[in-house]
Design brief:
The complex is a heterodimer of chains A (99) and B (135). With 99 residues, chain A is α/β, with parallel strands linked by helices. Chain A is built from 4 helices and 5 strands. Chain A has helices spanning 25-33, 54-70, 80-89, 91-94, and strands at 2-8, 11-20, 41-52, 72-76, 96-98. A 5-stranded mixed beta sheet of chain A has the order 1-2-3-4-5. In chain B, helix 2 (31-52) packs antiparallel against helix 3. The chains are: A alpha/beta (99), B alpha+beta (135).
């Protein structure tokens, strides 16, 4: 799992690469726990994300809850496999998924 | 049928998934199904690792079998932790908006959605959870 972040003003892009599972989700959670101070637009780039389990979904929900209070969160470059998981779990209604 | 016993520790997850993926690849399992099965197995194994034995370390036995009369697999987890039927857990309300969604409780729900059939038995001090997935 690799996490790349880039910040421009009040916009933060977090690119997730590899597998977001029970083992790796804490890495992403540590990023989320920083709290996104001063960020009004959070973009999660899933272009190179192969897999997400419920541990990863939990962290996404946490990020979404933080950003709902201070701006917006957008998820982009979502593969069909991940879309299927989002659909089964109702996360397609929670997340703002960019087509 | 093949089976492998793992320490019920989250650190063993990669080894569990490696076992699963190797078996699935030998059956030419479609990639989408493999992802789904990875997910289901992760949820089941992590549940055992996190909750079954409390502070003690126990084991999780995973059994893998190819279906005889259809394309697909039967996967079973056995542990000797506290008695727990995950199928009795109510499904989460997935229609709630983000602010009202609890952060947990999705794991077993995902397993039920992915599997074609799920079964739980408690016998001889063992939790036995089986599911079937057709390709």
């Amino acid at each position: 799992m690799e996490i790349k972040t880039s910040k421009a003003g009040s916009e933060l892009v977090i690119a997730l690469e590899g597998r977001l599972d029970t083992i790796t989700a804490p890495q992403f959670e540590a990023e989320v726990n920083k709290g996104f101070d001063g960020i009004t637009s959070l973009i999660i780039d899933m272009k190179k994300l192969d897999y997400i389990s419920s541990a990863g979904l939990r962290v996404l929900l946490k990020a979404q809850k933080i950003m709902a209070k201070q701006g917006s969160m957008t998820v982009k470059n979502v593969s069909q496999e991940l879309k299927d998981i989002f659909e089964v779990t109702g996360f397609n209604d929670i997340l703002n998924i960019e087509e | 049928m093949k089976e492998l016993k793992f320490d019920a520790k989250v650190e063993e997850l990669d080894a569990v998934l490696a076992f699963l993926d190797t078996e699935l690849e030998s059956l030419d399992c479609p990639m989408k199904v493999q992802t789904e099965l990875d997910l289901a197995v992760e949820e089941l194994f992590v549940n055992i690792a996190n909750y079954a034995y409390g502070d003690k370390t126990g084991y999780a036995l995973m059994k893998f079998a190819e279906l005889e009369n259809a394309r697909g697999v039967s996967i079973t987890f056995v542990d000797e932790g506290m008695q727990y039927n995950p199928l009795e857990r109510p499904d989460p309300d997935i229609t709630l908006p983000a602010e009202q969604r609890p952060v947990g409780g999705l794991g077993i729900f995902l397993v039920k959605k992915i599997a074609d059939e799920v079964n739980y038995n408690y016998s001889d001090g063992k939790n036995i959870f089986n599911f079937i997935k057709k390709f």
